[in-house]
Write a structure and sequence with these properties.
Shape: elongated
CATH class of the largest domain: Mainly Beta
Number of strands: 12
Radius of gyration: 23 Å
Structural class: mainly beta
Number of helices: 2
Largest sheet: 6 strands, antiparallel
Number of domains: 2
Helix content: under 10%
């Protein structure tokens, strides 16, 4: 019979796997404005849901929001939106207004969505080239991705670049760090789990695990591993 996997239990949204979002400060994103505006950084805060520090911005039109803090920013600095903005760390421009070779972060996937790519601490992307109505960006993973030229991005590199250099030292610290973001940790293979937790688990002998090919008519809880492959192994002549 099918088994409820950990991934499925998390997707259900029960209290065991629910993210402690009541402790999150908010969602850092861009304002939906068309005119050029300026904002002042009135505070720099830490949020458990983000690896990078966040800035609290107050704009000259009365709005306030959160943004991911760039490297070298401080309270009292001014940031600006729009095509007439300078290439200064923290300023937000469309990709079409950013020259090649500039480091950017918090890039929008679609114009107006507030930013989806390159948001973790110490990371940045680089504008490579331009196409017709498109801009090619080199992501931190060394993958090149094509964005709409009207997508917005922030100039600079995200603060908190030394985060990965500090060791966790023990598993308990790592556990609570991952729990604060509702991440699944530690990651255990299916063959090491009990029979009630995964289709591959269930034996304590030296021969652990079961075939990783899920049959075509398997129930939803059993469809893990190689799902109904057309061919496995060497091709017969």
């Amino acid at each position: 019979m099918g088994k409820r996997l950990i991934q499925q239990a998390r997707g259900k949204g029960g209290p065991t796997y629910r993210s402690p979002s009541f402790r999150y400060k908010g969602k850092p994103c861009y304002l939906s404005v068309k005119e050029n505006i300026q904002g002042e950084i009135i505070d720099i805060i830490k949020c458990a849901g983000h690896s990078a520090p966040l800035t609290v911005l107050k704009y000259n039109n009365g709005f306030m929001n959160l943004m991911i803090a760039p490297e070298g920013i401080r309270v009292g600095d001014m940031i600006s939106y729009g095509g007439k903005s300078d290439l200064k760390g923290g300023n937000v421009l469309m990709l079409k207004d950013i020259p090649e070779g500039t480091s950017v972060y918090n890039i929008e996937h679609q114009p107006g969505d507030g930013g989806k790519f390159v948001r973790s601490s110490g990371t940045s992307a680089k504008v490579l080239s331009r196409l017709k109505n498109k801009v090619v960006v080199l992501l931190p993973s060394k993958k090149q991705k094509v964005f709409d030229e009207k997508c917005r991005a922030t100039i600079g590199m995200i603060a908190g670049s030394g985060r990965k250099e500090k060791p966790f030292l023990k598993a308990g610290v790592k556990y609570y760090k991952m729990k604060s973001k509702n991440k699944l940790w530690p990651s255990v293979s299916g063959t090491s789990q009990n029979a009630v937790d995964h289709p591959f688990g269930g034996t304590s002998s030296s021969h652990k695990g079961k075939p990783t090919i899920a049959p075509r008519n398997a129930p939803p809880g059993r469809k893990v591993g190689s799902i109904r492959p057309r061919r496995m192994g060497r091709k017969k002549k």
